[in-house]
Known about the structure:
The structure holds 2 protein chains of 2 kinds. Chain A is an alpha/beta fold. Chain A has a domain at 26-38 and 60-84 and 140-147 and 154-245: P-loop containing nucleotide triphosphate hydrolases (Rossmann fold). Chain A has helices spanning 37-44, 67-73, 90-94, 110-123, 140-152, 170-185, 197-203, 226-234, 236-245, and strands at residues 26-31, 55-57, 60-62, 75-78, 101-102, 107-108, 158-162, 189-193, 206-211, 214-220. A 6-stranded mixed beta sheet of chain A has the order 4-7-8-1-9-10, with helices on both faces. In chain A, strands 2-3 form a two-stranded antiparallel sheet. In chain A, helix 5 packs parallel to helix 6 (170-185). In chain B, helix 3 (54-79) packs across helix 11 (261-271), helix 8 (182-200) runs parallel beside helix 9 and helix 12 (283-302) packs antiparallel against helix 13 (308-328). Chain B has one domain (26-329): ABC transporter involved in vitamin B12 uptake, BtuC, CATH 1.10.3470. Chain B is mainly α. The interface between A and B is large, with 42 and 43 residues. Chain B: The chain crosses the membrane at residues 28-48, 85-102, 109-129, 177-198, 227-247, 281-302, 308-330. Chain B: Keywords: Cell membrane, Membrane, Transmembrane, Transmembrane helix. Chain B: GO terms for molecular function: transmembrane transporter activity. Chain B: It is a multi-pass membrane protein.
Amino acid sequence: MRDIRKRYGMVDALRGPTLRVGPGEVVGLVGDNAAGKSTLMKVLAGAVVPDSGEIVFDGRPVAFASPKDARELGIEMVYQDLALCDDIDVAGNLFLGREPRKAGGMMLDLSKMHADARRHLDALNIRIPLTDIPVGGLSGGQRQAVAIARAVTFGPKLLILDEPTAALAVAEVETVLELIKTVSAQDVSVILITHRLQDLFRVCDRLCVMYEGTVRADLDARNTSLERLVSEIVAHDEGEKEGERR
Amino acid sequence: MTATRTGTSQRVVTTRSARANAHIGRHAQTIAIAVVLVVLLIFFAFSADRFATTGNILNLLRQIAPTLVVATAMTFVISTSGIDLSVGSTVALSGSLLAIVLQHGWNPTLALVAILALGALIGFVNGWFSSYQNIPPFIVTLAMLSIMRGTALRATEGYSTPIDGELWIVQIGQGRIAGVPVPAILAVIIALVGWLVLTRTPFGRYVIGLGSNGESLRRAGVNTRKVGLTVYVLTGLAAAVAGVLIATRLSSGSSNAGSGFELEVITAVVLGGTSLFGGRASMLGTILGALTLGVIANGLVLLHVSPFYVQIVQGGILLLAIFANSKVWAKFGAIRK
Lengths: 246, 337
């Protein structure tokens, strides 16, 4: 059982949200701008060190000083700005920083790299027929797919996707959503941050709504309506009254 | 649950023509410069009597050897979207100091090693300021250009220092193996190693990545600063090699050697299709670019055109090459700059 919880004290950006993700579960994280979604995820990916609170991963409390620590435990984050090198080919981007080598580590093993890339892409049903073209020549959806595939090849247990479908054409959004389903079917937990609410119902198991640095609702995606979700995100007046009543 | 391959996802498949476009886009400029070179070769072969002789071709290869050596290293620097303007001054300093220490009776082998180490050190200083201190390499290497030239002038007091023709080290610049000048052989070997390193090693991959999207490379866990520093060490080292080649060919070390050399080297690299904005590099293009510059200089001299025109033509070519680089080739498929 892999439970992730985190709490922290009265920090401005994050006012003690608690988030739980089970294995293979897809959790949609939504909220208005500045609700703290990205900060929360950066904490989880080790890019931001929280003032207080705890993260429990695989049943053990953990603390991350850098993204490397989080990565070693199996937490991968795909950032909004893609983080691909346009001029390097698909296989090169998939293995950037950990290329298969030969000749005592001196040379790139290009044939193994392309073969491995092919295998990874096929395993994820990513439809990119050629691994030797620069990613700059791919469509937005394909680039996003490569970025996600890259994170998946690290063998993560938890994958965080920050706005993976922003600025994509409709058909490309489909590609990415299919990919998220494929990844979660391989028992990888996914946290999906998006403003495209209709996407959430397509792939998510649960929906967490953040508001002013707290998680204010934890909904089951299967029996929540779009209207309910929207009201949770924007109807903050009502929410605050509720809070006062409590 | 496995995802089904729906019709919609098939519609974003990369087509054959996209692949062809990407390939042409990456190689268009290399092909273009090869065509230009062939046209020039034919033109000079018919217009200049002594151009297409074995002797002249070998001489041409020897002439461009220093340019090719430094251009190989410069291809790495420019691929990271950096620039090294100090190479010409480093050529002058290393050639002058080589002649001076040999005159003081140093062992030639020791002198050679010391000069190469000096070149690497100059490159290290360039790289440290550029890569670790994030000062624009244009400024850092411009300052070093001035410092190194001044040091060379101070060391020689402006005079040329002769190198004893009996020393073995002179063979580096003047020797021949099976009739082929040693500098040409060295240059070709260095260029081939450069090509291998750029296209087939992790380091070459990171150099491209650094110029393409340095932040992405850093997040991938690569020590980008070290990569950024190393490329300047390579140009420093290559400039020292070029200084040795020039000084030993002329049997003299001069503080005026290599003035305008950085322009020639950068022109060769840009002409070959390497992008000044980084991320796109062609070592083959650099070799062809250096050859083209050499052919133009050599051919014009054989046609009895004033040698002063050579510099004008070179500057013009640089401008044209950058124009083509950013306006013409950018239209091809994969390039988004």
